[in-house]
Specification:
The complex is a heterodimer. By secondary structure, chain A is an alpha+beta fold. In chain A, helix 7 packs antiparallel against helix 8 and helix 8 packs antiparallel against helix 9 (598-627). By secondary structure, chain B is mainly α. In chain B, a hairpin with a 5-residue loop joins strand 10 (698-703) and strand 11. The chains are: A alpha+beta, B mainly alpha. Chain A binds chain B through residues 307-312, 344-351, 368-369, 375-378, 445-450, 531, 640, 643-644, 647-648, 650-651, 661, and chain B through 19-21, 51, 53, 116-118, 448, 452, 455-456, 458, 460, 462-463, 511-512, 524, 526, 529-530, 532-534, 536-538, 558, 666, 669-670, 699-705, 707.
């Protein structure tokens, strides 16, 4: 990919290359050396493709190495190497089982692994684990520490990794371990452009021999392909093919740095889903939610599509016309994920399915359109997770324990940025990641934040599903800070209402002497006075009711004295009330703005007084009647007329009260 | 309504020991609050049914500009030259739009962010229209209170909160100028009426600012600037001239005009365009009137005054007409625009400006849509007019004139139902409120008589005689109750109708189409966004897309690609060029497309899904608009005996024009419906006439899953050797 100029030549020559395999490793050095030279002399006529050139240069170094470098590391040797290359998806996985033996006298604690520069560049992940035989109960695997080293006297075209053995290997001792190396962008589509109807062919290159700084006693290689449709592959002396598997070897007793290039050109319709950029935002809310938002920029990394896209063909036979396209992606979300959404810049995308059980939540998302080679799309998925599944406490610190990478199945991520948004007020933040990541801090201002939330940003390039490991973010957070935002809201509303109350009660008019302002004030005064008058009148009416009640008591019990006492008390109160009424009426009379309402009020007061008198009269009549022991019917008859007047008066007073109210 | 509701609640309130005044205030405020909330949430059907998204066509442009405004600031927005539309001409956006809506939304966005609510600008835009609809209910309340009483105000607020005529343009997501403009319109009118009623400078100043906001928000401000002078003229003629009127109109006109000139799109039109001359004429007339009034006051001799009057009026009219004539002749005053003509004469656009006639919202209104949008208000409107005439005042004359003129315009153009809605709601509210009030007064006085009679069990001759007196109008009470129930029934019918219309008819975003599947399940056709997103992601960033102008705004906003023409139909020739390309043969069209640098052509096709508003159905307008500028395109070439067909009997030019080819490319091989031949067009219900379509200069680049949008790539020219 890094050699765009050479691509053109490559397209012409890929077939040529594959038909000229070379069985003899030593001879191969020479041939490659000559081609390497040829490259400088006859540039126009090139039959090599670029990776081969890479490797030819690399051979040159090997060749040089074979001559000059003394085998300083040869105390170790690999007694058995078993390699399996999985090409079943667009992520290439090479899994090797190595058995190292120490032949030298010194104790050795490190083993070197060598990868050609080209491969090392694409290498996303490398892990070494102690080998456990089949059939054994699987213990939790402890990975052996691996680090990049630059040993002296080694060809610079190789990248070395050193594996630290759990304990030093004494003379004659042996140790078996597994190495898993994962590569991205290692499959090259050839041809690079295909039409909708074409099948997608990809090329993979490696060595038939295990490339190692140590001599290898016995080795074998298995290449697993997605299916048995193979365009071509390098045939060496012992090459077997079983369905979708190609076997090379076994080879025995090869010296260090043996290399024999092989190339497999095969059909692969696996989804070449590559996220050029993925931004994952993990936001912690101590109210019980971890919100994950993932912004994908996705591209189909396979052969570019060219020519027409026919929907008709695609709909009629999607597996033939559009075999290389992928229509959906699967994400395995953590269990109990909720509020899942799937949208992009211009809105919600309705084609997705969610299935969940207690172990996982499976989200199947379809991009808006089928993804053909080179087509891009961008979308966002988001989901909430229960806080208690991911947040723990230890030694006074809280820590978030969550997986690093995307939940998508078989997705290559070129650049992954994980942002962990901690609650506002978190402090003392530290991160523990299982692999190296670039790290810095930002702030994010979200709802109701004052100084923003601390954000830990973790960036890593070239990420594969194997990186989906747990990492931890430790921080301190005071529980009381949780209340800050609700309190802010509450106080906001509180002050709003207080402001309303102040506004209602405060006098904010500018000119206090203007006519309209004065009139308004006077009117308010009048209203207050009238309110008082109304109060008094209604109190009077209540007393009338009381008198009536006392009369009813009289009917029932015949207690004349109590009735009289009630009248006396009522009389006193009524007098006081009428006293109170007087100054109010005078103020009303003096006020000019009350002119309109005054007659009504006066009428009310007069009617009320009349009512008062009538009630008193009625009361005394009834009481008198009782004293004279007149019959009930007799009293009734005497009172009836008064009663009618009373009712009418009462009605009038009520009406007046209502009328005044309306004004 | 309010009065009826009062009855049971008042008992409850009495237990709180509140004064009647306070009770009334409490009930009024709580009703208003509920109406405010109701107006907002009834417009959220679209969000619930679909999602929080921008609807239709124009709102996408508004959204795009708002986004630009929030990202780049006001000055960049004001000076924005948009290269992405009207290629190769471009568009001066700042000078060719009404910025009120965008500025409002951006302001709300800023305020929310200042208060630390980290909302997305899209949500703000989606909810702007419902928010302003809620505000409109408040304005309607105050307006009703001003022209009638608080009861009418409350009823008006309730009616306008759910009236479909208004909801159609203000559902959540309908981010269009009308959303805020109706609020601004009613607010201006309210302030102006208030100014007339009080004669206060403060209110007329406020109405000038209301007018300014309206001018900044919508081109419909022309309605205000013509209705108000007309109203003033009517007041002058009916002898209702007063100092209040003089103050209100002059202040409002002068300040409003000066403020409106600050909007670049309006500029000097207030003094230069024929549509605004009425206001200026009335302004001068007012001065003459005032002058004459003053002279009359000074002169005691009536005969002298008569003579003076004659001379002054003649001079004034002469000077005015000479000035107008000179202005027209010299071209200083522009004549009326086509849109204005088409309002006065509904047939004008059809004959002269096909581009205006082609827009569906410019069609004359059908009776059914009046019924659909107004429901019972249509019957209450005349009743309200009766009440207004019975109690004639400056304010009621205004609302009557507003109602009558806007009803006329609503009949001319279907989109102007929107302008009529507030008037219809207010006048109907007067009818409802007055009727209910009369009935309840009857009922209450009656009840009291009965109550007092029954409080004391003993019957008396006086009480019975009083009761007899009330019985003078037989069945009055029963009649009142029946009428009240009738009113209640009608109003509840109105409420259910409005809710139904809102949820079924007016809440579809028209970007996402929904249909019922065979088993009753909901099927979503999201083809538009599929295509636009494909454009956005998989075409070069500088690609130019040619499509009919309907989709221009959407392509720029969602597809982020340059378009040739869009919904801002300012350049008829450019649109006609696209129309010509679409209606020519492919080899002619390719020349036009090459000259316009077109990279992709987008067509909308409903033959597979039965979606009827597609490009084939719009095609005749392309022919007409294209033919209007380029006479080589003739409409009869595409018709057979005046009939528009796409099947075997179609005109040969039709079967081979670019649009036909692009829509039906490879459609002839497709089976759309069981039991029908391949190539059966479900939108038009015929088998297509040309099944063997070969494209020479274009190739299919993308077709959406339901074939609704088809995108073609213009192939580069062949090598010459």
């Amino acid at each position: 990919m890094q050699w765009p100029v050479l691509m053109v030549q490559a397209r012409l020559s890929w077939r040529l290359l594959l038909t000229v395999p070379d069985p003899d490793p030593v001879h191969n050095y020479l041939i490659t050396l000559t081609t390497y030279k040829k490259r400088f002399t006859r540039e126009s006529q090139t039959v090599e493709i670029c990776p081969r050139m890479e490797s030819s240069r690399f051979y040159f170094f090997l060749f040089a190495l074979a001559i000059f470098a003394s085998p300083a590391l040869s105390d170790l040797l690999l007694s058995k190497v078993d390699r399996r290359i999985y090409l079943t998806s667009h992520i290439v996985r090479i899994s090797s089982t190595l058995k190292v033996e120490n032949a030298g006298p010194e104790t050795v604690s490190e083993v070197l692994l060598a990868f050609p520069e080209q491969q090392a560049k694409n290498m996303a992940y490398l892990m070494a684990t102690p080998h456990e035989g089949k059939g054994k109960v699987k213990n939790p695997v402890v990975a052996l520490p691996v680090e990049v080293v630059n040993p002296k006297d080694m060809p610079p075209a190789l990248t070395f990794f050193s594996v630290s053995l759990p304990k030093g290997l004494a003379e004659g001792g042996s140790f078996t371990f597994d190495v898993l190396a994962v590569f991205t962008h290692a499959l090259r589509p050839i041809p690079e452009q295909i039409t909708q109807a074409d099948i997608q062919l990809v090329l993979f290159q490696d060595s038939a021999y295990y490339l190692s700084p140590y001599a290898v006693k016995a080795q074998s290689l298995t290449v697993k392909l997605p299916d048995s449709r193979i365009e071509s592959y390098t045939k060496l002396e012992s090459t077997k093919i079983h369905g979708s598997e190609i076997k090379y070897g076994p080879y025995e007793n090869l010296p260090a740095f043996s290399y024999s290039p092989i190339a497999v050109h095969f059909e692969s319709n696996q989804p070449f889903a590559v996220a050029q950029e993925l931004v994952r935002e993990i936001e912690i809310s101590h109210w019980g939610n971890v919100q994950v938002t993932e912004h994908y920029k996705l591209v189909h990394g396979g052969a570019q599509s060219k020519g027409e896209f026919s929907r008709l063909d695609f709909q009629a036979r999607p597996n033939v016309r559009g075999a290389s396209a992928f229509r959906y992606l699967v994400a395995n979300l953590p269990p109990r994920a909720h509020s899942v959404y799937y949208r992009d810049e211009i809105g919600n995308i309705s084609t997705s399915h969610l299935r969940g059980d207690s172990k996982k939540t499976e989200l199947l998302i379809e991009p808006r359109y089928p993804m053909f080679g080179g087509w891009r799309t961008a979308f966002t998925i988001g989901y909430g997770l229960p806080l208690q599944d991911f947040l723990y406490e230890s030694e006074g610190k809280r820590f978030l324990n969550i997986t690093y990478s995307s939940p998508m199945v078989e997705l290559v991520i070129d650049t992954l940025i994980v942002k962990v948004v901690l609650p506002e007020g978190s402090s003392d933040i530290s991160v523990a990641a299982p692999f190296h990541v670039e790290q810095w801090q930002e702030t994010k201002i979200s709802h109701l934040d004052i100084d923003g939330r601390p954000v830990i940003v973790l960036k890593k390039t070239n990420v594969v599903p194997e990186h989906n490991q747990y990492f931890q973010v430790y921080y301190r957070f005071n529980k009381l800070s949780m209340l800050r935002e609700p309190l802010m809201l509450i106080s906001g509303f509180f002050f709003f209402f207080v402001a309303c109350i102040v506004y209602m009660h405060a006098d904010i008019s500018i000119s206090k002497s203007s006519a309209s302002y004065l009139a308004k004030q006077q009117w308010e005064e009048v209203q207050a006075v009238i309110q008082q008058v109304q109060n008094i009148v209604s109190r009077c009416l209540a007393i009338h009711d009381k008198l009536e009640a006392s009369l009813r008591d009289l009917y029932r019990t015949g207690d004349i004295q109590a009735c009289k006492a009630a009248r006396k008390a009522a009389d006193g109160v009524l007098k006081e009330l009428s006293k109170e009424l007087k100054p109010l009426l005078t103020t009303l009379q003096s006020s000019p703005s009350a002119a309109q309402i005054l007659p009504k009020v006066e009428e009310l007061v007069a009617k009320e007084r009349e009512l008062q008198e009538k009630v008193m009269v009625k009361h005394s009549t009834v009481v008198d009647g009782y004293e004279k022991k007149s019959g009930a019917r007799d009293i009734e008859n005497r009172v009836a007329l008064q009663q009618q007047k009373l009712t009418a008066l009462r009605q009038e007073v009520d009406d007046l009260l209502e009328l005044i109210d309306e004004i | 309504m309010a009065a009826v509701a009062n009855m049971p609640v008042s008992d409850l309130l009495k237990s709180f020991k509140l004064k009647t005044k306070q009770q009334e205030l409490l009930i009024r405020v709580s009703i208003l609050c509920l109406v405010y909330i109701l107006a907002f949430i009834t417009r959220l059907f679209s969000v619930l049914r679909y999602e929080s998204m921008i609807h239709e066509f124009d709102p996408y442009f508004n959204y795009r500009t708002t986004l630009y405004l929030t990202q780049n600031g006001f000055y960049d927005f004001w000076n924005w030259f948009d290269y992405e539309s009207w290629y190769p001409l471009g568009r001066i956006v700042g000078g060719t739009l009404y910025p009120g809506l965008m500025v409002t939304a951006a302001l709300i966005y800023r305020i929310l962010h200042f208060l630390r609510f980290a909302v997305h600008i899209r949500e703000v835009c989606v909810l702007t229209a419902p928010f302003f609809a809620s505000n409109t209910t408040l304005v309607a309340y105050f307006f009703g209170k001003e022209i009638w009483d608080t009861g009418a105000g409350l009823v008006a607020a309730i009616l306008i909160a759910v009236c479909p005529g208004y909801i159609s343009r203000s559902v959540a997501g309908s981010y269009d100028n009308e959303g805020v403009a109706i609020f601004a319109l009613l607010f201006t009118f309210y302030l102006f009426v208030k100014a007339i009623n009080t004669g206060s400078l403060a209110w007329s100043l406020a109405s000038a600012f209301g007018y300014f906001y309206m001018v900044s928000a919508w081109g419909g401000y022309v309605f205000i600037i013509n209705l108000i002078p007309l109203y003033v003229l009517v007041l002058l003629i009916t002898g209702r001239y007063s100092m209040r009127l003089y103050v209100a109109y002059n202040c409002m006109y002068v300040l409003g005009m000066l403020l409106a000139m600050q909007i670049r799109f309006v500029g000097f039109q207030h003094v230069q365009s024929g549509e605004h001359m009425a206001a200026m004429g009335v302004f001068f007339l007012m001065q003459v009137f005032y002058f004459l009034d003053w002279v009359k006051h000074m002169l005691s001799d009536t005969k002298l005054f008569q003579a003076f009057l004659r001379i002054t009026v003649t001079c004034a009219v002469a000077v005015g007409s000479i000035a107008l004539g000179l202005g027209m002749l010299s071209g200083y005053i522009s004549p009326w625009t086509g849109r204005f003509y088409s309002l006065l004469d509904p047939t004008y656009a059809k004959d002269h400006i096909p581009i205006i006639a082609s827009v569906s919202e410019h069609q004359p209104t059908a009776w059914s849509s009046f019924m659909f949008d107004f429901h019972i208000l249509l019957f209450l409107f005349p009743a309200g007019l009766y009440f207004c005439f019975k109690r004639l005042s400056d304010a009621t004359i205004f609302i009557v004139m507003y109602g009558l003129t806007s009803m006329y315009f609503a009949g001319v153009m279907v989109r102007l139902i929107l302008v009529a809605t507030p008037a219809v709601c207010l006048i109907s509210a007067i009818a409802v409120s007055a009727t209910v009030k009369n009935l309840t007064v009857l009922l209450r006085s009656k009840n009291k008589g009965v109550q007092t009679g029954s409080t004391k069990g003993s019957s008396s001759s006086k009480a019975s005689s009083k009761a007899l007196l009330d019985q003078s109008q037989p069945f009055q009470k029963n009649g009142a109750i029946a009428l009240l129930f009738g009113a209640f029934y009608l109003l509840s019918k109105y409420a259910t109708h409005c809710t139904w219309v809102t949820s079924e008819a007016y809440s579809s975003p028209s970007i996402v189409l929904a249909a019922r599947g065979a088993h009753g399940s909901r099927v979503i056709f999201d083809d538009y966004r599929e295509a636009y997103f494909w454009l956005r992601q998989n075409t070069p960033p500088d690609a130019k897309v040619m499509s009919w102008w309907d989709y221009g705004y959407q392509i720029t906003a969602m597809g982020n690609r340059t378009v040739i023409v869009d919904n801002n139909t300012w350049n008829n020739t450019h649109i006609a060029t696209v129309g010509r390309a679409m209606s020519s043969y492919e080899d002619e069209a390719i020349e036009i497309m090459r000259s316009l640098d077109v990279d992709y052509v987008l067509v909308v096709f409903g033959g597979v899904t039965g979606y009827s508003s597609d490009d084939i159905n719009k095609f005749l307008w392309m022919v007409r608009i294209g033919g209007g500028v380029f006479p080589v395109i003739k409409e009869p070439d595409y018709l057979v005996n005046g009939e528009y067909r796409v099947d075997k009997g179609a005109a040969p030019k039709m079967l081979n024009c670019l649009m036909y080819k692009l829509c039906y490319y490879r459609f002839g091989e497709m089976l759309t419906e069981y039991g029908k031949p391949p190539g059966y067009d479900r939108a038009r219900g015929v088998e297509i006439g040309n099944k063997d379509i070969k494209l020479e200069h274009l190739e299919e680049a993308f077709t959406t899953s339901n074939w609704i949008v088809r995108i073609y790539k213009v192939k580069p020219p062949n090598n010459r050797w």
